[in-house]
Design brief:
Elements (H helix, E strand, L loop, with lengths): L5 E6 L3 H13 L4 E6 L2 H10 L4 E5 L7 H11 L5 E5 L4 H10 L3 E4 L6 H63 L6 H24 L7 E4 L1 H16 L3 E6 L7 E4 H18 L4 E9 L6 E7 L6 H6 L17 H11 L3 E7 L3 E8 L21 E5 L3 H14 L2 E5 L2 H9 L6 E5 L7 H11 L5 E5 L18 E3 L4 H12 L1
Parallel strand pairs: 1-2, 1-3, 3-4, 4-5, 7-9, 13-14, 13-15, 15-16, 16-17
Antiparallel strand pairs: 6-8, 9-10, 10-12, 11-12
This protein binds adenosine-5'-diphosphate and magnesium ion.
């Protein structure tokens, strides 16, 4: 039992009895504070006015029936302990009251029983509340789960649509050239599509539907590579500083998800520094644990404790409808914990915010990859398999413009037929989720004929365990729709060489 004061509401018409009740409780060492009520109005007023921990009610009240007080109390709070005290009560009556929800029943000449009864009731009520709280959390988790499924369900189609919009906007842009009067309009379309895809991606990552491709990374390299995009996000009036500890152990995490986390933090920092400020990105090793940490420190307005306490909650936002989604930190939390790390906030109003991400060091340090960059060559025969006409067309146009020879099929069976009929190809570019056969299965089939066939997958999303779907082969990159034409061309170039 905690030493906190116990608020007791005594419903009794008799002063002396109320005093006796109070005495018996304090004598037993319970730190009680008593409020007395005689009428049902007084009971209502007390319950409304202040928190009450336990109600002790006399059975023989002149103005009100104990049964009615009980109903009143139950309506106010189903878990509030209710103990009946009485000089005389028939056994039957007592049984009725217990059935109606009175938790215990003490005779006035046996008041020594009262304190243990109150203590037990308080304990049980706390248990019931804890239980209810757990149930609520479970329900919340279930809600989030179905939301995730919903998001996953539309994300596929939605990303296809965005791929078409952004693909054509890019072509428009290039055709119009920077001096054309409509160039800015086409650019705006491209940017809006990019924002749409950012939002879907956030939802997919958040709901765990986006498969992770963990890789061995140097946090310093990620932080350095992101400098350019960060400074663009932050704008001119935020000063960006990067402070790196050298020779970090490497970590294992999905790179694009980690970048999303850093981006989310930067956007929050940006919003907290409306006029100007400083953002510091720093890396370090925690000597005791070997964990590698990334801190993102802003000089913004900070958070009051009640906001900080809820900041990681999904859909919690202080930014108002249409401005914030409340998914930024929730997503960050999901990504970092999935990778075995921790994420925490330190913030005070007016003093800025530090978001700290710590990741465990990768067990085996693999040799640094030696990446040889070649000049992009864009010749070769590409088989594009995609069931969405719009996506297939735009991908075809991007590839042809770059110099590739493009063959298109609108489903895997058609693709297999083309190959059996003698089509020679240098690479396969395929959607994953298509009717009849998954792109992964198609790739496996074609690799039976040509084991080293270069393959690039594109997908609105893949749930790693799609029924009948195969694991993505490690040597085949996955492009998330909608993709920039630059990324598509890079991916193809990489697998072709
Ligand atoms: N760097 C920060 N400075 C001040 N407040 C922040 C910062 N980061 C997050 N917050 C608070 O936490 C809330 C939740 O953040 P987030 O999950 O990214 O959702 P959103 O940005 O869409 O509101 C924000 O609305 C804001 O009140
Ligand atoms: Mg945010």
């Amino acid at each position: 039992m905690t030493a906190a004061q116990i608020e007791v509401l005594v419903v009794d018409d008799n002063d002396d009895d109320a005093v006796l009740i109070g005495h018996s409780l304090s004598r037993a060492g319970l730190p009680v504070r008593l409020t007395r009520a005689e009428t049902s109005e007084e009971v209502t007023a007390t319950l409304a006015g202040r928190p009450v921990d336990v109600v002790i009610c006399d059975y023989n009240l002149p103005g009100v029936r104990a049964e009615d007080v009980l109903v009143q109390v139950r309506e106010h709070d189903a878990d509030l302990p209710f103990v009946l005290v009485s000089g005389q009560v028939g056994e039957e009556k007592a049984a009725d009251l217990m059935r109606a929800g009175a938790r215990d029943f003490v005779l006035k000449d046996r008041l020594t029983r009262l304190a243990p009864a109150v203590q037990r009731e308080l304990h049980e009520a706390a248990e019931r509340r804890r239980h209810r709280h757990t149930e609520q959390q479970l329900r919340q988790a279930e809600r989030l789960d179905s939301l995730g499924q919903l998001a996953g369900g539309i994300a596929h189609d939605f990303n296809n649509i965005l791929a078409v919009i952004s693909g054509y906007a890019t072509i428009l842009n290039e055709e119009l050239g920077p001096d054309h009067a409509l160039h800015a309009d086409a650019l705006a379309i491209e940017q809006a599509a990019a924002r749409g895809s950012g939002l879907t991606r956030q939802l997919l990552i958040f709901s765990g539907l986006e498969p992770s491709r963990p890789e061995l990374l140097d946090l310093n390299v990620v932080a350095t590579d992101m400098q350019r995009v960060l400074s663009r996000t932050l704008g001119d009036d935020v000063e960006l500083t990067t402070m790196l500890s050298l020779n970090l152990p490497r970590i294992t995490i999905d790179r694009s998800k980690l970048e999303q986390v850093i981006m989310n933090a930067a956007m929050n920092a940006r919003a907290a520094m409306p006029s100007n400020g400083r953002l510091t990105v720093s890396t370090e090793v925690v000597r005791e644990t070997g964990h590698v940490c990334l801190s993102i420190i802003d000089s913004g307005r900070g958070m009051p404790p009640e906001v900080a306490a809820r900041a990681f909650e999904p859909f919690f936002t202080t930014k108002g409808r249409g401005k914030g989604t409340g998914l930024g930190l929730a997503t960050a939390y999901g990504v970092i914990t999935e990778a075995g790390g921790t994420i925490s906030l330190d913030s005070r109003p007016g003093e800025g915010t530090t978001l700290r991400i710590c990741l465990p060091p990768a067990e085996i340090a693999a040799p640094a990859s030696t990446l040889v960059r070649r000049p992009p060559s864009t010749t070769g025969r590409i088989l594009v398999v995609e069931d969405e006409d719009g996506v297939r067309d735009i991908v075809g146009r991007i590839l042809r413009r770059a110099g590739y020879e493009v063959h298109a099929a609108d489903d895997p069976v058609e693709a297999l037929r083309l190959v059996h009929d003698g089509l020679e190809l240098d690479a396969l570019l395929t959607d994953i989720i298509m009717p009849g056969m998954y792109g992964t299965q198609l790739a496996a089939e074609l690799r039976k004929i040509r084991p080293a066939l270069p393959v690039v997958f594109m997908s609105g999303y893949t749930s790693g365990s799609a029924p009948g779907g195969e694991e993505l082969p490690a040597d085949a990159p996955l492009l998330h729709k909608p993709f920039q034409s630059e990324n598509l061309l890079n991916a193809l170039h990489t697998v072709l060489h």
